[in-house]
């Protein structure tokens, strides 16, 4: 079993993430690529003391980039969209 603090890497403060947070009470975070939905839900509930209704995950492949003559690749990452239950609120700036 994993340590719950290794599951969630960081919150993602993007325009889309802020939009779904305000409109739909959802939070966007970057998670460990090896974690599953059950581990993500358990980690969020234990760390932030909120009730989670649903977790959706997105696997993003890294993009190919050119740096002068050499080519490279940005790292792969996994994101999670966490839907909070009605009446719950999670703010990473204040938490």
Features:
two-stranded antiparallel sheet; 95 residues; 6 strands; globular; four-stranded antiparallel β-sheet; alpha+beta; Alpha-Beta Plaits
Furnish the topology, listing elements before pairings:
Elements (H helix, E strand, L loop, with lengths): L3 H4 E4 L3 H10 L1 E6 L5 H12 L3 E9 L3 E4 L2 E4 L3 E8 L11
Antiparallel strand pairs: 1-2, 2-6, 3-6, 4-5
Structural commentary:
This protein has 95 residues and is of the alpha+beta class. It has a single domain, classed as RRM (RNA recognition motif) domain (Alpha-Beta Plaits, 2-Layer Sandwich), CATH 3.30.70. The chain is 27% helix and 37% strand. It has 3 helices and 6 strands. The protein has helices at 4-7, 15-24, 37-48, and strands spanning 8-11, 26-31, 52-60, 64-67, 70-73, 77-84. A 4-stranded antiparallel β-sheet has the order 1-2-6-3. The longest helix is centred in the middle third of the chain and has 12 residues, at 37-48. The mean pLDDT is 91.
């Amino acid at each position: 079993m994993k340590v719950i603090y290794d599951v969630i890497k960081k919150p993602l403060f993007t325009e889309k993430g802020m939009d779904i947070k305000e409109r739909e009470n959802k939070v966007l975070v970057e998670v460990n690529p090896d974690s599953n939905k059950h581990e993500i839900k358990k980690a969020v509930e234990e760390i932030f003391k909120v009730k989670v209704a649903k977790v959706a995950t997105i696997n993003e492949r890294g993009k190919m980039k050119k740096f002068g003559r050499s080519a490279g690749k940005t790292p792969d990452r996994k994101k999670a969209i966490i839907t909070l239950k009605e009446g719950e609120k999670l703010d990473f700036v204040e938490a």
